[in-house]
Design brief:
321 residues, alpha+beta, Arc Repressor Mutant, subunit A, BirA Bifunctional Protein, domain 2, SH3 type barrels, seven-stranded mixed β-sheet, five-stranded antiparallel β-sheet, 10 helices, 14 strands, binds biotinyl-5-AMP
């Protein structure tokens, strides 16, 4: 109920009378008033003016299910959303729930993580203010057919950040979203599979939203929406926007991105056209990234014209951290 009142106040953006609120939600004006009191005690600043009604002037930076859900009804990702005040890692928590039979489609977000993780055991800084969440997707497709999911998820997140913030977000192949040359988002996909069939996929996404600072060792290569725009982001609405894009992109993604999405992916991929360095049979190779293959692999060409297909692993991109 309280969430509905909050959503109505946000939607109105201006004063809305107690009468209108009570009609809209279908409760008495006294109930509206009690919930307004409750919202204020939670840190929402709500003005009230006689004959005009209530107006929300500021919200605490806290995730809120009603605002995440918005007007969009997902069919694949985000059919249910859970919010935790704190967890070790949303990927780990979702893994525990998947083992207990959790259904496909759940998005689990946390206000902060005590053991946020990146790839290869690396750490993901997860202080209050960021957006940390994972989704669970059950599919029986062969594991080889779902390896492009990180790419598809990165593409969807990139579109959402661009649309929601207006920032020029780009994809650093395969799993980072960057602004300029700094990382704003990382993606970690894990799966449980047999040789020929996948059981489930857990895709974890960390977006630096209202993060103000980072540890010294990574400060120079990270950024956040707050740093870039100077404004606080409504993380609930941002998450809603990300879920919508994920749901749409992944619903059409069965084995690989559609031709149109692939063309748009290439346009947003900051790695293409740059010098990249990677290792092949213990030899360090320098080449130029020239394309993304239909399976999501990075294609690079060296000075002699020899082409390499890079499926995963570490690629250093000149000019990006
Ligand atoms: C990633 O790994 O970029 C994947 C990050 C996935 C995080 C999400 S949050 C929700 C879910 N739950 C989890 O526990 N994880 C997922 P990788 O490409 O290995 O990059 C890790 C590196 O990025 C670190 O070694 C740092 O250099 C840098 N880094 C750490 N925290 C960062 C942050 N908040 N912003 C930008 N860069 C960061």
């Amino acid at each position: 109920m309280k969430d509905k009142i909050l959503a109505a106040l946000k939607e109105s953006g201006d004063y809305i009378s107690g009468e209108k609120l009570s009609e809209k939600i279908g409760v008495s004006r006294t109930t509206v008033w009690n919930h307004i009191k409750q919202l204020r005690s939670e840190g929402y600043i709500i003005d009230s003016v006689t004959n005009k009604g209530y107006r929300l002037t500021s919200s605490p930076d806290r995730l809120n299910c009603a605002l995440i859900n918005g007007n969009y009804t997902p069919s694949l990702i985000g059919t249910r959303v859970g919010i935790l005040p704190e967890t070790d890692s949303t990927n780990e928590e979702l893994k525990r729930r998947a083992a207990l039979g959790e259904k496909s489609g759940l998005v689990l977000a946390a206000e902060k993580q005590t053991g946020g993780k990146g790839r290869l055991g690396r750490k993901w800084e997860s202080d209050q203010g960021g957006l940390y969440f994972s989704f669970l997707l059950r599919t029986e497709l062969p594991p080889a057919d779902v390896t492009g999911i990180t790419l598809a998820a990165g593409y969807a997140v990139c579109l959402a950040i661009r649309e929601y913030t207006g920032l020029d977000a780009r994809i650093k192949w395969p799993n980072d979203i960057i602004i300029g040359s700094r990382k704003i988002c990382g993606i970690l996909t894990e799966m449980s599979a047999q040789t020929d069939s996948t059981e489930y996929i857990i895709c974890g996404i960390g977006i630096n939203a209202n993060n103000r600072d980072f540890p010294e060792e990574i400060r120079g290569k990270c950024t956040s929406i707050l740093t870039e725009t100077g404004e606080m982001t409504d993380r609930s609405r941002l998450l809603g926007c990300v879920i919508e894009k994920l749901d749409k992109v992944l619903s059409s993604f069965i084995v690989s991105l559609s031709v149109e999405d692939m063309a748009s992916f290439r346009e947003l991929c900051a790695t293409l056209g740059r010098k990249v360095t990677f290792t092949r049979a213990k030899t360090v190779i320098e080449a130029t990234a020239v394309d993304i293959g239909s399976d999501g692999e990075l294609i690079a060409r060296d000075q002699s014209g020899k082409e390499y297909s890079i499926n995963s692993g570490e690629v250093t991109v000149q000019g990006i951290y």
